[in-house]
Amino acid sequence: MTPRVLIVDDEPIVRDVLTRYLSKGGFRVDSAEDGEAALEQFAAEPPDLVLLDLMLPGVDGVEVFTRIRADHDTPVIMLTARGEETDRVVGLEIGADDYIAKPFSPREVVARVRAVLRRSPAADDARREDGPIRFDGGEIDPAARNVTVRGRPVSLTPKEFDLLFFLARNPGRVFDRLELLEELWDFAFDGDPATVTVHIRRLREKIERDPSHPRNLVTVWGAGYRFDP
Q1: For residue 108, which of 47, 23, 18, 198 has the smallest C-alpha distance?
Q2: Tens of pLDDT along 6-43?
Q3: pLDDT tens, 183-206?
Q4: What domains can be seen in the chain, in order of their start residue?
């Protein structure tokens, strides 16, 4: 299922920008302008992650967080307009999963959301429920994080496995390098798209019958990469 994110911020422009970027990134998005509205929306349909402004009118972010975590382990990323260390410490000490100070890059927020969701217990459960993916003489076992090709185990780095598994779970869909970079690499830095190119090349050397003429990890010129089973 598509992950759902609840944005809680009293600034309309922040809600609008984050909604646009997260929606483009493949998330379902709802938003609330204050703590009371956030708690009502959360109770009606708990999201997969909350982007929560620390400074809210009325019921502030700390109170909203405390009431959410009383009954749920939903991941929460704290937002604040102040970059002071004390605000960051408050957010993390009460148990927030991450902290982002304004002003921020919307693309980085999307990447941080993905990173937190990948670390969440729900993501672990989903990976355990995924069955093996078979392709052209090979098999990917997400539970054991093992890959075999033509009956032999293949040694992959953690990031190589994540990249292969992500593409294999979305067969036939083309992803450009920036999409893959944002999906699989924590965007706490200005990532170099060449990183994806290098990992694709290494994966081809390990799983393809003929790496110079790949059948599984296919380049779609001018668009990106596609996995064909």
Answers
A1: 18
A2: 999 999 999 999 999 999 888 999 999 999 999 999 99
A3: 787 554 456 788 899 999 999 999
A4: 4-124 (3.40.50.2300), 130-227 (1.10.10.10)
Answer yes or no: are the C-beta atoms of 10 and 58 closer than 8 Å: no
Contacts of 99 (CB under 8 A, 6+ apart): 77, 78, 80, 87, 88, 91, 92
- Report pTM: 0.61
Q: What 3-state DSSP class applies to 178?
A: helix
Taking the C-alpha atoms of residue 76 and residue 85, their distance in angstroms, rounded to an integer, is 18
For helices 177-184 and 194-207, angle between their N-to-C axes, nearest 10 degrees = 90
Which amino acid is it at 185? W
Phi and psi torsions of 193, nearest 5°: -55, -20
Strands 49-53 and 146-149: unpaired
